[in-house]
Amino acid sequence: MRQGEVASQGKWTGAASGGVKAPEALILPDPARRFAGTAKRLGELVSGHPMQEWLRFLMKLSEAQHHVAATLPPPTSLELAAVQQAVEARRPPLAGDGYRRNEEWRKGLALLLDCFDDYPLPPEGRSVIDRLRGRDAKAIEMLADRFLQGDVDAADVGSMLHVAAALQVNFTRMAASLPVSSLRLLPNRSLCPCCGSTPVAGLVTASGQTPGARYLYCSLCSTAWNHVRAVCVTCGGSRAVNLRAVDGGSDVVKAETCDDCGTYSKVLYQAKGMSVDPFADDLATLGLDLLVVEAGWLRHAPNPLLLAG
After folding, report:
1. What's the pLDDT band for 6 if we cut at 50, 70, 90?
2. Are 58 and 93 in contact (CB under 8 A)?
3. Per-residue pLDDT for 11 more than 50?
């Protein structure tokens, strides 16, 4: 579901019962709209932003991801069969301990890099792309494995940024192909039911059949799943949870802090801005991260593009 859309327009699983409708469990991403929506939102946020050059680059990266998602062929029958086996075993079907990506994601990486041929990158950025193009398949797969394991070496952060972006496209396309009726939330509600990754941010809906529900958005495969509000995403506690924002800033994005475990996660409020996008607005609110971290809380999980870039 792209930010700003009515929730019930997506591919939802579950069924409401009774007079009051319960929030649906999860929604699968739409690759044709996910990255285009993020690029559009970044374009809205870039003007006058203190990090506008970085946001312009990320907007270009999102546009490149959209191009890749629209160009690559659909997942093969062999890929879908392997994923279906994991679904039937009640495991996250795209989790790293079971899902094996094929070479299509590397083709996507090559397409993504091509999108920057005419983009005015600084010399170090151009050098990163040239070096990445010079790596063989084995070396690129090793970069991908290390990224998915959270093992990002300082010498490879530039290459990892593009690898992370290509992996997001791959996992988003695979998540979109899953049999939604067979998916279930995990016992650990802070992890994505499709790939087991952590969320990039949460969104409180303003429309749909259950306005006011919170959904977490996967940082890797873009799946969204329901999570109770005012409950810490990290430890599940509610006693010491508070919302914090930048003084004088927008109320669209706030940090939900937990004094029990010392972590925080971001919450976006669709009622304050119908065009909010969890991926774009997270990247554009690094000032909020800095303030909360300086005050003593640690982020629940990193944004992959910030971990790599």
Report:
1. very low
2. no
3. no
Residue 8: the pLDDT is 30
Q: How confident is the model at residue 15 (pLDDT cuts 50, 70, 90)?
A: very low
- Quick one: how far is CA 189 from the chain centroid? 16
Mean pLDDT for 123-139 is 96
What's the one-letter identity of residue 194?
C
Q: Which residue in this structure is represented by tokens 């690559």?
A: 72
Contact predicate 171/147, CB 8 Å: no
| In this structure, CATH architecture of domain 31-176 | Alpha-Beta Complex (3.90)
- H or E segment to which residue 113 belongs: helix 104-114
- Of the pLDDT bands very low, low, confident and very high (cuts 50, 70, 90), residue 77 is confident
Cα first-last separation, the chain? 26
Nearest CA to 11 out of 191, 213, 178, 186 is that of 178
Is-contact 200 192, C-beta < 8 A? Answer: no
Q: Model-level pTM?
A: 0.91
Burial class (CB in 10 A: 0-12, 13-18, 19+), 150: exposed
Residue 4: pLDDT over 60: no
| Residues in CB range of 256: below 8 A, 6 or more apart | 202, 230, 232, 233, 241, 242, 243, 244, 264, 265, 266, 267
Torsion angle (degrees, nearest 10) of CA 126, 129, 132, 133:
-110
| Nearest CA among 217, 241, 244 for reference residue 229 | 241
Q: What is the mean pLDDT of residues 80-102?
A: 83
Dist CA 211 CA 244 (whole Å):
22
Q: Which residue carries 């996507």 as its tokens? A: 108
Whole-number CA gyration radius for the chain: 19
- Residue 227: how many CA atoms within 13 Å on its side-chain side? 33
Q: Which residues contact 8 (CB under 8 A, 6 or more apart)?
A: 208, 209
**CA nearest 282: which of 309, 255, 244?**
255
